[in-house]
Amino acid sequence: MTGSPSPFKELEVVIRLSLLPEALHNVRGHIRAQLLQQLLRYNEDFGGVIVSFSKIAPKSHCGQLVCDEPHIHVDVGTTAYVFAPSLTTELIARTTKVSATHISLLAYGIFNVTIAAADVGSAHVISEDGADWICRHERDSDGAQDIRSGTHVRLRVKKTHHAEGLLAIDGELMGVLNTTPASVTMTSSTTTASTTSMTSSADAIVGDMIPMATCITPSENKTVSPAGEGKETDASVRKRKKERKTKDEKKVKKKKKKRETL
């Protein structure tokens, strides 16, 4: 696909996350969990689908509390790898369904693509049983013939749609591949991810993450102690309970004595 722009781009971004106080014992893990929820979802700010994060690091060792809200707001810097095809991008996709009205495909094994019958072109015609698009000629320019389930094709992006975090692509058929591609990889200047690894890109999300200190210095001078600091031992807990019990017993005796006096 010489001359076609890459459908992937790398963005240096800062993402604001909101952590509950319970996250202080494992800030790294909770940041990772929140970023995982954004993978393979369309992000309007980034203009595409996030497929991986790398070089994850909080911008500060402190978070922020706003008014009386319990959430701790943290700015996290990261490199986001985003699938954002333009209208001139060409893709290779595998056919998953054939009908008289359209062809359904998957690009990189994940992204839904639809080629309407009008965009298949005059080189192919639907078969009588509607199971294949039959090539009118002996062979097309790529040396392939019919389009059926499992066939790999080359297409050009015509339009993209997104709703509720899901991306759909309308495409125009450019050609049919004669052989199954050995691998369809996602590459950029610094990152290469295969279709298989992209589906498990969550495993690579930790990257070069720097653990965030759990001290919080909000604008209203409220502070949260670091995780583990000031934590009571079992002995201190037993002592405190015993003191409370003794105090309660004294109160009961005092009330009883007062009633007897009356």
Automatic annotation (TrEMBL):
GO biological process, one term: DNA-templated transcription initiation
Gene3D superfamilies for this protein: 2.40.50.1060, RNA polymerase Rpb7-like, N-terminal domain (3.30.1490.120)
Subcellular location as annotated: Nucleus
Annotated region (Disordered), positions in chain: 218-262
Keywords: DNA-directed RNA polymerase, Nucleus, Transcription
Ranges of Basic residues composition bias in the record: 252-262
Residues annotated as signal peptide: none
One Gene Ontology cellular component annotation held by this UniProt entry: RNA polymerase I complex
InterPro entries for this protein: RNA_pol_Rpb7-like_N_sf, Rpb7-like
Coiled-coil segments on the chain, per record: none
Transmembrane domains' residue ranges: none
Keyword hit for Lipid biosynthesis: no
Keyword Cell cycle part of the UniProt annotation: no
Name recorded for this polypeptide: RPA43 OB domain-containing protein
